[in-house]
Predict the structure of 2-(1,2-epoxy-1,2-dihydrophenyl)acetyl-CoA isomerase.
Amino acid sequence: MSGRRRLVRTTLAGGVARLTLDRPERHNSLVPELLDDLLAAIEALADEPSVRAVVLAAEGRSFSTGGDVRAFHDQPDERLRDYAAGLVGRLNRTILALLGLPQPVIARVQGPVTGGSLGLVLAADLVAATPEAFFAPYYVTVGFAPDGGWSALLPERIGLQRTREIQLLNRRVGAAEARALGLVTEVVEAGALDACIAGWLAILEGHVASGLRAARRSLLTDARRAAYAAGLEAERQAFLAEVARPETRRGMARFLGARAAG
């Protein structure tokens, strides 16, 4: 850990743990170091009885733009598949760790949630988002296979046909539609986002802590967790099958070129 700054900040106050993605210069895009820091922070909370709720937030204009395409693109051919295996594997473990926390999890979302970062939001119990927030896959424009629960978790939430439509058309889902679909709990202006979350935390504080934990635990049965884990691993294997294809290399270059031109 020495020699680099942490890419996730953890603060504890009043029984609430706040985990903040802190790579705003790259829109909190996912790299191994960020996921290592996030997973370590989550695991540290699992057996912490003084923490009654967890808030997952992000620094800057974006919640997270998913896997850092530049980091993928810059990998030499002989290392690309190993890099992808490690990154998607870390993401899967992080999603499952969030789902497995005994405490309620609240996601604070602003700006884009793209690619695999969707899984961090899907793992939350409550989601507060600004009107400018949106969700988008981008897999078909780059050539990656879906990860982060786009096939393993999302169809259960919004239905298989709607998931197909969004992915195949690479359609952006705005905050209002995301609320209608059940991806977001409340859409509030940026200045009211923290007040909304504070209201939820006040409600949670009035409940019996053991009851909250029992409710969350009962919703993640062993069978459901096993199904999620199997689905996420299937995503990882599909991702690895696609990532090193020449057309995916070309797709990454086009994507990065379009971003630079924009």
The chain has one domain: 8-190+226-261. The chain has twelve helices and nine strands.
